[in-house]
Input
Amino acid sequence: MTTTSPARRQKRDKLLTRRAARWLDARLGGAKYARTALGKVFPDHWSFLLGELALYAFVVLLATGVYLTFFFHPGNQIVTYHGSYAPLHGVQMSEAYRSAVELSFDVRAGLVMRQIHHWAALLFVASIVVHLMRIFFTGAFRRPREVNWMIGVLLLILAIFNGFAGYSLLDDQLSGTGLRIAYSITLSIPLAGTWLASLLFGGEFPGPDIIDRLYVIHILLLPAVIALLIGIHLFLVVRHKHTQFGGMGRTEENVVGEAVWPSFAFKSLGLMMLVAAVLAALGGLAQINPIWLYGPFDPAEVSSASQPDWYMGWLDGSLRLFPPLEIRAFGFEVPAPFFPGALLAGITFGLLFAWPSLEALFTGDRRVHHLLDRPRDRPVRTSLGVATLSFYTVLTLAASNDVIATTFGLSVNAVLLTFRALVIVLPPIAALVTYRLCNELQARDIAGGYVPPDRPRVRWELLRFWRWRAMRRASRAPSTAG
Amino acid sequence: MIRPRLLRLVMLVPLVAAGLYLVTGTSTARGAEHGDTGRGRELYLTGCSSCHGIHGKGVEANGEQRGPSLEHAGPAITNYMLTTGRMPLANSEDRPVRKDPAYDTEQIRDLIAYVSTLGEGPAIPDVDITTGDLAAGGELYRANCQPCHSASGAGGALSYGRAAPQLSKATPTQIGSAIRTGPGQMPVFGPDTLSSHEVDSIARYVKYLEHPDDRGGVSLGRLGPIPEGFLIWVLGVGLLIVICTWIGGRTRNRREVEPQP
Output
């Protein structure tokens, strides 16, 4: 410092980072955009961070996943195990399974990476679901954000599918059982099923190509698509500006919050560190998917207590609850897994995609909204949401009917019947209770002097679809008259 | 050159002996030889005859069976039932479950000796887990036992309130006895299905499952994805939501206002 001349000192900044930024800006000219991006205002509410949990779980997934690809070999050639896990010595297994066991026992940090990766996958889907709940219950999907809602739903589907593909790669007994169920669901789709199944599996189950195909899908195709969609998702958030709750000077015309730089950026970075820390702790301290106990996949064997990862539980549960029903019509046969499997998944995601349009149709509210709803101020939406959640929660719990039965010393059949009753009875009860609760809370607000915003009337008459034509005619007539 | 052949010959001896043993007599088995049938009969009359009948032919009352006939029971199943504390049942509607044995070793030996006089049945198998092959046992276990007892030996549900129990408390002899006699809903695996060496191997693997090489932290009951899913929602999502409220709740920072486009 003492040796630099005064002239030089004037030009050069002391901060290395600032010097680097100047250097880059002089050559690339990005400072203008960076400044507007960093100057953006982000409203502050804890629930706005839920989506970021998903984002950072994805970052952890990418980081650990890259490490795993260095050591994992997919492949279905039969090989003999000679690694350090004695109880499998000399056992014949697929190459995929062998490399997964070697990854767990003979690769430095292999097991902890595998476990962090798996926990991160569970967290990724879970935080997407929690984020989706926040968006749903606050009405953040309304115009102009419908497209971003759909991208979010797409991300949920891809996350679930990629998780399933991921744990199926290891070719152990448990994941093989899951693949077999996936195969029979695919096969049950009318007309296209057989063709789809052989496209994916490369022939009859277990299929020679499935592991190779899943590998490319899991490590390349889906991560790339997910990363791209996350990019668009975030771009649209910036583009639309973030929604905010009303009150304290916040209106439809402004955004009140803190600037991205420095306050929000550091909060977000801190959150990333904490997500990574929680996942690392789980990966290091809690065992997940001990495949060496499950053994290599053999299509002739099955273990009791075979459950999928939690995010597939609702599908497994509905397969367990739905009565075996086969339909033969017009020379086609619709096998039993179609209704609780393929059809339920189709309806679930179809309704999710359509929700913004459905709600706009039923409320007639197509205005632009930047202020969020408080869940209690929209009791119909809130109670429908809670009912739906209770439906899928029951289905998910039903996937563990056998374990619940043994743990609590009950009969599996009794547990099954209870779940069948619950899946029908619980959602309406949950809806009614929620509706009452919303009205109660709102009444209390009004008593406290708070005026709730207008709530649009729900046009329940639209449910009478056989009268649509008459209604359309009726609505057209006066509008032409004036 | 000679040694392997010699070894094979030596290994053949117990096999031949075991074969002869199985063919010649099943009821004059170990345990039966040592026990005192007289004392066994006394214990039997006080503890067992109310359900199994004085002559071991079973008891039927009001069209309901209180206990099955023991004429095909034999030492192995009796040993299994008594050493796992399943017998005597308190109530004939109860399901036999593992408890602390009601009798001491001496009394059990006497009871086995007495029940063996009632009829014939498989002998108590001689299980030596040190000669078992762990990896082969694992394969046999996964092929034959895992459908009911689960991959980790944690047990599993069968239909109508029945369950395959957890295996972690079973001794090698109990494992062998269960395999050979098929108690309850469990199938019988005779010597033509599983050789006695294979039984040794399975028993070794089952004992191994009691304390498996458990890398990766706390084992979460080895119940698979259910506790894992539970943990990610409670500890993962739950904790992170608390963290979010902690990070995101700080509205006291300087606020800025920006117009909506």
Observations:
- The mean pLDDT of chain A is 89.
